[in-house]
């Protein structure tokens, strides 16, 4: 039977490629990032679900900025009443600098076994892989061991407020549900992600005094004070420098990232400097400890540079973890060994996915896919081989006894 399902999927490869090419032609950029939302893409995915013959299609749609944010859930009934969710997302990140693309982001092209397009890897590959895993089951008249709930959600790339968080808020999930989020992984397919570090995003606003650059004594240079603050982040890195090899990378990171424009001309000393810090913190540390340390840096810089500093928390998420010994991890590990022939590495990571929102309310969730990790990059692509492998892993998971 196993061989049959894998052979069936291999037969469906061409169709899978065509479907993925059609899917990624539709941009689905969130209104918050200046796009038209996921409406059209959701309709396309729904039409595929109907063709495949899912037992039930449910909408949990919502709105942001007057734009519909579709959340599509399609179910096929299994032998047992347990539920396995496959959580994918419809939205993509903006294309960024078009000059950096060799191809056109929404006119997919195949080269060297790869499909190039924005959204090909993130998350088109696994939308299509999951749908065709169900199609293969249907073609062979096989019933999955438990109910399969396939979800194609909105708003993953920004904050999930209108996607996964919305479903959590609507109490869509039930006790006993388990989750696979195919939205991150490794090139050999061995990485099973079961934990995420805590996340802390901060805005740092330095207030000095603007003046003519030829008379610096009349002002207070906020850019210089801001840079001094950034220099002090190395103390934070040192104070919270523990390592935990379970996580990749093994340390907590504290990185200054975005900086806002200040004065437009060279001969003015800027009176304000605003920048942001992205922190990914190992679970051994409390977010409050980090904030207290930053408060100390703030006081020092205020005193030494005679500025005022405001620290604002933009986003704060506590670390989450699914036990490496949970059944869903074991099931997935088995499928990986069979399909990819690799020894699974069960790890924690620094980036966030939809899995964290259900882990937070105590549901087991794993993140896995076989990807080169080119999401968000110019010339993003999906390997056709990975598309097929992911579909085989999903199909194997659907049929594994529980
Ligand atoms: Zn993604």
Automatic annotation (TrEMBL):
Gene3D superfamilies hit by this protein: 3.30.70.360, Zn peptidases (3.40.630.10)
Keywords: Aminotransferase, Cobalt, Hydrolase, Metal-binding, Transferase, Zinc
InterPro entries in the record: ArgE/DapE, Bact_exopeptidase_dim_dom, Peptidase_M20, Peptidase_M20_dimer, Peptidase_M20A
Signal peptide: none
Keyword presence, Metal-binding: yes
Swiss-Prot/TrEMBL cofactor(s): Co(2+); Zn(2+)
KW Zinc-finger (keyword) present: no
Peptidase M20 dimerisation domain sequence ranges: 195-303
GO molecular function (one): transaminase activity
Family, as annotated: Belongs to the peptidase M20A family.
Name of the protein in question: Diaminopimelate aminotransferase
Lineage of producing organism: Bacteria, Candidatus Ratteibacteria
